[in-house]
Design brief:
The protein contains four helices and no strands. With about 80 residues, the chain is mostly helical. It has one domain (about 25-83).
Protein backbone atom coordinates (compact mmCIF):
# COMPACT_ATOMS: atom_id res chain seq x y z
CA UNK A 1 0.00 0.00 0.00
CA UNK A 2 1.39 3.40 -0.94
CA UNK A 3 1.27 6.62 1.06
CA UNK A 4 -1.22 8.02 -1.50
CA UNK A 5 -3.58 5.12 -0.81
CA UNK A 6 -3.33 5.69 2.94
CA UNK A 7 -4.15 9.40 2.76
CA UNK A 8 -6.68 9.22 -0.07
CA UNK A 9 -4.58 11.23 -2.51
CA UNK A 10 -4.54 10.96 -6.29
CA UNK A 11 -1.74 8.65 -7.39
CA UNK A 12 -0.61 11.26 -9.92
CA UNK A 13 -0.98 14.72 -8.40
CA UNK A 14 -1.78 14.20 -4.69
CA UNK A 15 -5.12 16.06 -4.86
CA UNK A 16 -7.97 14.36 -2.97
CA UNK A 17 -9.20 11.17 -4.65
CA UNK A 18 -12.82 10.70 -5.70
CA UNK A 19 -14.82 7.81 -4.20
CA UNK A 20 -13.22 4.47 -5.06
CA UNK A 21 -10.96 5.83 -7.79
CA UNK A 22 -7.19 5.98 -7.44
CA UNK A 23 -7.37 9.47 -8.98
CA UNK A 24 -8.68 12.97 -8.29
CA UNK A 25 -11.65 14.20 -10.32
CA UNK A 26 -9.38 15.62 -13.07
CA UNK A 27 -7.40 12.42 -13.59
CA UNK A 28 -10.46 10.17 -13.12
CA UNK A 29 -12.16 12.07 -15.98
CA UNK A 30 -8.98 11.81 -18.07
CA UNK A 31 -8.93 8.03 -17.45
CA UNK A 32 -12.58 7.75 -18.49
CA UNK A 33 -11.89 9.73 -21.67
CA UNK A 34 -8.86 7.56 -22.38
CA UNK A 35 -10.89 4.35 -22.01
CA UNK A 36 -13.84 5.69 -24.04
CA UNK A 37 -11.47 6.94 -26.73
CA UNK A 38 -9.75 3.57 -26.98
CA UNK A 39 -13.03 1.88 -27.86
CA UNK A 40 -13.75 4.54 -30.51
CA UNK A 41 -10.27 4.18 -32.02
CA UNK A 42 -10.66 0.39 -32.17
CA UNK A 43 -13.95 0.82 -34.02
CA UNK A 44 -12.53 3.46 -36.36
CA UNK A 45 -9.50 1.35 -37.26
CA UNK A 46 -11.75 -1.62 -38.01
CA UNK A 47 -9.20 -3.84 -36.37
CA UNK A 48 -7.51 -4.43 -33.09
CA UNK A 49 -5.18 -1.62 -32.07
CA UNK A 50 -2.89 -2.40 -29.18
CA UNK A 51 -3.32 -0.20 -26.15
CA UNK A 52 0.37 0.78 -26.23
CA UNK A 53 0.01 1.86 -29.89
CA UNK A 54 -3.05 3.94 -28.95
CA UNK A 55 -1.06 5.54 -26.13
CA UNK A 56 1.80 6.27 -28.52
CA UNK A 57 -0.52 8.05 -30.95
CA UNK A 58 -2.04 10.14 -28.17
CA UNK A 59 1.32 11.10 -26.73
CA UNK A 60 2.41 12.42 -30.13
CA UNK A 61 -0.77 14.44 -30.71
CA UNK A 62 -0.43 18.08 -29.74
CA UNK A 63 -4.18 18.16 -28.99
CA UNK A 64 -3.94 15.52 -26.27
CA UNK A 65 -4.44 17.17 -22.89
CA UNK A 66 -1.88 17.17 -20.13
CA UNK A 67 -4.08 15.16 -17.73
CA UNK A 68 -4.51 12.37 -20.30
CA UNK A 69 -0.76 12.32 -20.92
CA UNK A 70 -0.18 12.12 -17.15
CA UNK A 71 -2.58 9.16 -16.86
CA UNK A 72 -0.84 7.39 -19.76
CA UNK A 73 2.51 7.92 -18.05
CA UNK A 74 1.13 6.57 -14.79
CA UNK A 75 -0.29 3.47 -16.53
CA UNK A 76 2.98 2.86 -18.37
CA UNK A 77 5.00 3.07 -15.14
CA UNK A 78 2.62 0.88 -13.16
CA UNK A 79 3.89 -2.72 -12.78
CA UNK A 80 1.90 -5.30 -14.78
CA UNK A 81 -0.72 -7.18 -12.84
CA UNK A 82 -1.11 -4.48 -10.17
CA UNK A 83 -4.72 -3.39 -9.74
Amino acid sequence: MTVSQLVDECHICRRPRVSVSEFCSLHAEAMKNLEDGYEKWRTAFGQEIAREDYFGYLLRLQETGAAVKEVIGYIQRKPSGVA
